[in-house]
Amino acid sequence: MSIRYDLSGKIIEACKGMNQSGLNQGTAGNISCRFDNGMLITPSGIAYDQMEENDIVFVSNDGTYDNNKVPSSEWRFHQIIYQTRPDLNAVVHNHAQFSTTLSILNKAIPAIHYMIAAAGGKDIPCIPYATYGTPELSDHVATGFAERNAILMQHHGMTAAGETLAKAVWLAEEVETLSKLYTNLLQTGLEIPTLSDDEIAVVLGKFKHYGLREKS
What we know:
Layout: H1 3-21, E1 30-35, E2 38-41, E3 57-60, H2 75-84, E4 90-94, H3 97-104, E5 126-127, H4 135-145, E6 150-153, E7 157-162, H5 165-186, H6 197-206
Parallel strand pairs: 5-6
Antiparallel strand pairs: 1-2, 1-4, 2-3, 4-7, 6-7
Helix pairs in contact: 2-4, 3-5
């Protein structure tokens, strides 16, 4: 079994897992992993339960891709994340319910809980809207990922990335949990307390050795 085939299988399983957990619906989301001089990414328009390893598309760093295959329409912002952040090797994008709700409201998630630091900073920003699949959206994504490992995307959804595919999926789940908490807090109409920047700095230091631990 080739490395590409094995990684493609892991991408498919992660896609199915997103839908089974309710993190995503239908074919709305997309997943990629850094591979060779480019990336492997889910194809456009193929249902996850029908997807096979040979359907996963290789897109090179110059933007060319496999003949007779069509990558996700969002491949450009996946590519720019890898270009912006050489430490990240997997990207998960979805339209999770609570994350997307906040994105429609154009609300960043503030430091309501110390787990906000899992995304790399004192908040999870919401980048400006741009039409899906466009270079303009990619530019916004690059700005968002310059200092964060996860973002909300106005009127769109959320994107998380990680050193590995498992860590990217884990972070996406954490972002959705934080989004649900924040959405619930907003409904109270009360002033929402947040952790101080100093405390988040402490947590960020501790998070250098925190997070999903994968068995070899």
